[in-house]
Amino acid sequence: MAAHMPTSRTPAVAPAVVSAQGAGLSPPPYRVVRALLRSGLRLVTIEAAHLHTASIVLYVRAGARYETARSNGLSHFVEHMLFRGSSGFPDSYALNLAIERLGGTLYAETGRDYSLFQISLAPGDVDGGLCILGDLFASPTFRDIELERRIIIEEIREDLDDRGRNVNLDDVSRAAAWADHPLGYAITGPLRNVRGFKVDDVRRHFRRFYGGRNMVLCVGGPVRHARVAPVARRAFAAVPAGRRAPTRAPRMPGGGPRFRWVDNDGAQVEIQILFHALPERDPDYLPLAALLRVLDDGMSTRLHYRICDQKGLAYSVNGALEPLHDTALLEVDASCSPVKLPRLLREALGILAGFRDELVSDAELEKAKHRYRRDLEASYDDLDGLCGWFGGTELYFRPRPQSERLRRMQQVRPVDIQRAARRVIRPERLTVAIVGTRHQALVRRVAQIVRAFR
Prior knowledge:
The protein has a six-stranded mixed beta sheet, sandwiched between helices. Helices cover 39% and strands 16% of the residues. The termini are close together. With 454 residues, it is of the alpha+beta class. It folds into two domains: 31-235, Cytochrome Bc1 Complex, Chain A, domain 1 (2-Layer Sandwich), CATH 3.30.830; 258-452, CATH 3.30.830.10.
């Protein structure tokens, strides 16, 4: 049993929930077409005639997990440097002006296992957007490195306290959860690395990861693959093939449960509770996703109702799954006043342990399935989400269509959720990280709660 205080029972969900079992999706108003370009670049076109905007997204298999301690932050650095222009657009002003004349904006981000570059624009301007991106990724200039370095340093400093320590809770918790694996590195990297990167480092990293075989180009909106494909072939013809970046599978660190604390001034303490979970292709991933729906999918679900509504321990609390192709993290995060932290932690761990100890009710599960189906249908109008699922997922494996995802979710039973919970909600898989409070006695109490979890 988990070490937790007795709690009030979650109220039964009203029996009038519409059954999701056997309910199908509305036919998707889009078609996904794939092609392989000569360089090995995978092209995914989402033909969605019902939408009124288009999006071009280039996904790259890069990020912190492909770095070493010495190169950590280089993927993020390269992302920034690409905004500095290309042979056809010799500086950042020329590049951004060309995109903005099409009505778009170049957006980019780097994660732990990907980078992406996106332009959203009118459907009639897709050809122009493809030509701009093709030139950018064929011949970047990487100029003005010192100027861009100063910008990145300012971005990093947003996560540092007055003693130069990283107080970004995501970074603190991942460093504890993944130990020495690169998945635990900060995406932006440490200041000492960023201060030392040279143009040669940027070019070498770009050549290593920005080849056709290591990228996916996704074009979505009211477009036709027959029109997009030849333009993409011409626009990206000069991008080298490169090679696909291999991934080092993470191993769950030993010695759990793990606890990490960074003291920091402030009226509240931030807390994250993490469990090493299951990758998307694991048979128990969808039961785990159903567990998350029962845990936190609205104000009537267990997490918010018991911690916020009934206990008043926090203003908000959230549960989520962070999926990667070969692993995942189940996460609960909240902020509260320091004096409430031990009770909040016990309550949250008790709620999670309850999924191992008792079957979820049929009413809770039916509600979760119904909302899952509604969210899948809502995704038909979410172009960014469609590109992320069919394009971003393609970096690692072929994503399932929405109808298949619903079919598999409809088959989930309470016993499946309990089995997934017993695989995941375990002390050796637990990491707890907090940022805030200088009261060491309070921190010792929290550490004891973590160590006592069973």
